[in-house]
Amino acid sequence: MTDASLAGLVARLPHLRLLTEPGDLEHYGRDWTRRWTPAPLAIALPADVAEVQGIVRWANEQGVAVVPSGGRTGLSGGAVAANGELVLSLERMNRVLGFDAVDRTLTVQAGMTLHAVHEAAKEHGLIYPVDFAARGSCSIGGNIATNAGGIRVIRYGNTREWIAGLTVVAGNGELLQLNRGLIKNSSGYDLRQLMIGSEGTLGVVVEATLRLTDPAPPSQVMLLALPNMDALMEVFALFRSRLTLQAFEFFTDVALRHVLAHGAQRAIDGDHPYYVVTEFDADESSQDAALAAFEVGLDHGWISDGVIAQSEAQAAALWRVREGITESLAPHKPYKNDISLRISALPDFLHEIQGLLGREYPHFEVVWFGHIGDGNLHINVLRPEHLSDGDFIAQCELVTKLLADTLQRHGGSISAEHGIGLVKRAYLGSTRSEAEIALMRGVKQVFDPKGLLNPGKLFG
Ligand code: MLT
Ligand code: ZN
Q1: What is the pTM of this model?
Q2: CATH at 246
Q3: Which terminus of the chain has fewer Cβ atoms in its 10 Å neighbourhood, N or C?
Q4: Which protein residues touch ligand 1 with a CB less than 6 Å away?
Q5: Is the dihedral angle over the CA atoms 121, 127, 129, 131 positive or is it negative?
């Protein structure tokens, strides 16, 4: 690809903002994985849908690969541009397009941050309930591309549940209006759902109609210390049976150590191997129910200690411990695993995997945390200082192969919410059958015949 053909793009879209400075190529060519050296051709920052269509049509004519780009907070390399691709950043398309009080929907451009979506919903007395720590930087388009989950899935489900309609530029530049905000629509294949989680390989999401809902009732936040991993599932079952949970998250003492070193405040004294942050509806009876559940947990030896937040500030401080983990680990260049299982399969799987990781990673620091109430574990392996990035990743990949085999036997998934991207594409076959992958490739071929949308992501 040459500057001459970029000139063709400029001639076609004279008002298109295009960046080619090395600093911009580096900034827009990477995501939070930091594993690949960014090397995009250029960065296009369209201002509207027509410009997105123009870019995709031009890319088709010129055979240029396009990497759709949101907030680039992804952890699987899904937004990496390391091979001369054109990065198509939706960042300037970040406005609310409309609110419908009757339908209770908010229509937005794909480049809005999740935080801005939350604020916009709040202005109408409603909420968009998908939430997670990267809310200030990630974009709603990126959330849709990965079917993002986060900390409220136990109560509200994944992004998929909240998308009433999508406007998408397909691989040939054609504009698709998918589902148009309908609640019921039994008229054939649901292409909207196909787009959700497709990691920018089928089309570029340019606008979305989001369902909103009533604000959650007042809640309480509790931090619990647990003596072992088996207790995690016992406490989860106990709390779920007595309270209406809004979140149920866990982390280990290793995660706590990192997050405390990063500025979070200790809320429970002593050494405990496991912790849970849980949030639940706080109606009149729930305070008693929570305390009763806590007592039962203590009596059974499943809970060692706990605190309940007495104010919003305390609740926020407890959440900061959980939500600060990713940032506190980032300097250690963690190798990330984002796996999921049916909740019923977790106890057996956890037993097996604890043994496996203990054996295979005897000298590495392994940090466990995540959305245990959804069956979603984040297993982060930290790079020892004496190992190069390359050697470290190579060693981790060997273990991931074993992890993937174990997951397959237990019916789990190699990616719960981060996506496959580049990082996990070698393991797609542990979660999807050959027949499924063949069909997925066929779908890709239909939407993007020239294979120019986010090539190399999802499939090896
Ligand atoms: C989180 O839940 O904090 C992130 O999805 C996990 C991670 O950073 O691996
Ligand atoms: Zn997560």
Answers
A1: 0.96
A2: 3.30.70.2190
A3: C
A4: 75, 133, 325-326, 336, 338, 370, 378, 380
A5: positive
CA of 185 to the centre of ligand 1 (A): 34
Whether 344 and 285 map to the same domain: the answer is no
Mind listing the pLDDT tens digit of every residue in the chain (460 residues)? 456 679 999 999 999 999 999 999 999 999 999 999 999 999 999 999 999 999 999 999 999 999 999 999 999 999 999 999 999 999 999 999 999 999 999 999 999 999 999 999 999 999 999 999 999 999 999 999 999 999 999 999 999 999 999 999 999 999 999 999 999 999 999 999 999 999 999 999 999 999 999 999 999 999 999 999 999 999 999 999 999 999 999 999 999 999 999 999 999 999 999 999 999 999 888 889 999 999 999 999 999 999 999 999 999 999 999 999 999 999 999 999 999 999 999 999 999 999 999 898 888 999 999 999 999 999 999 999 999 999 999 999 999 999 999 999 999 999 999 999 999 999 999 999 999 999 999 999 999 999 999 999 999 7
Q: Is residue 121 part of a domain?
A: yes
Which ligand is closest to the CA of 251, given by its number?
A: 1
Same domain, 302 and 350: no
Q: Give the number of whichever ligand sits closest to the CA of residue 74.
A: 1
Query: Does any domain span residue 241?
Result: yes
Does residue 354 lie in a domain region?
yes
73 within 8 A of 453, measured Cβ to Cβ: no
Q: Is 403 exposed, middle or buried (0-12, 13-18, 19+ CB in 10 A)?
A: buried
CA torsion through residues 199, 200, 201, 204, sign? positive
* Structural domain of 350: 333-418
Distance 221 CA to ligand 2 centre (A): 18
Q: What ligand 1 atom has the least distance to the C-alpha of 418?
A: 5
Q: Count the domains in the chain.
A: 4
**Ligand 1 mean position, distance from CA 378 (Å):** 6
What secondary structure, in 3-state letters, does 49-105 show?
Answer: HHHHHHHHHHHHHHCCCEEEECCCCCCCCCCCCCCCCEEEECCCCCCEEEEECCCCE
